[in-house]
Amino acid sequence: MLAILKRELSAYFNSAIGYIVLGIFYFFSGLFFFLSCLLSNTSDMSGVFGNMFMIVLLLIPIITMKSFSEEKKQKTDQALLTAPVNLFEIVMGKFLGAFVLYAMCVAIFIVYTLVICCFTAPNWATIFCTIFGMLLLGSALIAIDIFISALTESQVVAAFLSIAVALFISLIDVFTNITNSQFLINCINAISFNRNYLNFTHGILDLSNVVFFVGIAAIFIFLTIRVFEKKRWN
Amino acid sequence: MVEVKNLTKTYGNIKAIDNISFTANSGEVLGFLGPNGAGKSTTMNIITGYLSSTSGQVIVDGSEILESPKETKAKIGYLPEIPPLYPDMTVKSYLEFMFDIKKVKLPKAAHIKEVMAVVQITDVQNRLIKNLSKGYKQRVGFAQALLGNPPVLILDEPTVGLDPKQIIEIRNLIRGLGKKHTVIFSSHVLSEVSAICDRIIVISGGKIVADAKTDELSTVLSGQGQLLLEVEGSSSAVSSAINDVYGVKKVNSLGNNRYAVDYDNTIDIRKGVFRALAKADCPILEMKNGGMTLEESFLHLTENSNKGGKN
């Protein structure tokens, strides 16, 4: 697993993808931080974190689009699947590789927090809670997008499908406006990524939100393993 | 060393391989020969655990691939038809990665250096794989299969697309590897398999149609021998004399005092023919073996089985 994780990270930084992802994330988070904290003279970063939701949704498909599609195209999956490692280790290696790159993106918030420290005492609880929430949101999306990448041999198809899923996730809250059924509204709220994420940005650490993201990540890691098992048996 | 028992793989209604059984012994170079699409790669993919069989067993050195996949996979070095290379890595970093995922217990730097020396890629170790020529890529593929000194090597058409010089180099490499490893090697080129292998399995339409030592293959395949003779004397006297010899099936007169004699290949008829013709006072001017060449038998076999498959 560690070997695959190491290879994933070196692949990100041997190509331009690692730098592009870091650049986009740092640029937009910096812009939002400047606009909503520095210009408005506030230490409250919840606005920045709220805006980053959309950026994260659209950025993670770029991180994961190559994960398995490229392996299938180059036939390197044959090397992985005939090596003495099990499927869980392979999929987790890929997942953690993408997660570490994402965590490097999120780490920039430590710098922003230090900037706030220069002016005033930051709200540590909110900041740590939000960074934690952002990592959880990322892990769920990475698992979904790695699953999509395992379905196709084309990284372009993987990227487009992942972005389509991301757009659906961002629009899911809109559906609450078109129904009067309280039951449906509750269901939509329960599976809304935005709602589950926003609690973190307000400094609320709710176990159900944590379970939601961890559960999604676990389900899609499991499904990715199943994709390869099915391929082997068919 | 490698035991394959009643292996079958079906894709929907199509049988890619059909009840294949064979054994590759320790230290043997086994050639897997068959036309394109015969089921060679499918069989190899099942032995290495990339695909699962519909039914049947693969036992490598005592462990079964589905029951103990990790243990079994560690005993096999596999070079698939398209070498599984990451183009964005250097040769050395790629081999280090493969060393890690194969969980090899040997000293890392020394072992990789040794393997690179065996396949002669030491001089390109710091180059990106995408910039290498096809022959070098093939050798890097070889190198990853050799990591960890696995007792069994499975090589799927390792010489396809190489130039003649590279083909000879790769052949010599396989021959050298056969001394230390059990090698199963596939090809659709007959001359190549007969040049390298101790034993040949011919597979066609998903079935094994022949399994024999390389030098015996032609007689085993054809099922009968042929003797070509030039004999002085009347053709009727010669024909009747030879026809009386035990083991002779048919005498064909080719004209010009030449004859082709079909016989049962389990019996050596040469002495009998000599005595019979001496008795009939017909001197033998020339006698030679006219059995089918390896190519002829191979074509004969694979064509026959294809016809059978269509019926």
Structure in words:
- The complex is a heterodimer of chains A (234) and B (311).
- Chain A has 234 residues and is mainly alpha-helical.
- Chain A has one domain.
- Chain A has twelve helices and no strands.
- In chain A, helix 1 packs across helix 6, helix 2 (17-38) runs antiparallel to helix 3 (46-64) and helix 8 runs parallel beside helix 12.
- The mean pLDDT of chain A is 91.
- Chain B is an alpha/beta fold.
- Chain B has two domains: 2-219, 3-Layer(aba) Sandwich (Rossmann fold); 223-294, Alpha-Beta Plaits (2-Layer Sandwich), CATH 3.30.70.
- Chain B is 36% helix and 29% strand.
- In chain B, the strands form three sheets. Chain B has a six-stranded mixed beta sheet, sandwiched between helices. Chain B has a four-stranded antiparallel beta sheet with strand order 2-1-4-5.
- The longest helix of chain B has 17 residues, at 294-310.
- Classes of the chains: A mainly alpha (234), B alpha/beta (311).
- Chain A binds chain B through residues 2-4, 6-7, 10-11, 14-15, 74-86, 232-234, and chain B through 11, 45, 48-52, 69-71, 73-74, 76, 78, 80, 82, 84-89, 93, 97-98, 100-103, 144.
Give descriptors for this structure:
heterodimer, A: 234 residues, mainly alpha, B: 311 residues, alpha/beta, Rossmann fold, Alpha-Beta Plaits, 6-stranded mixed sheet, 4-stranded antiparallel sheet, 14 strands, 29% strand
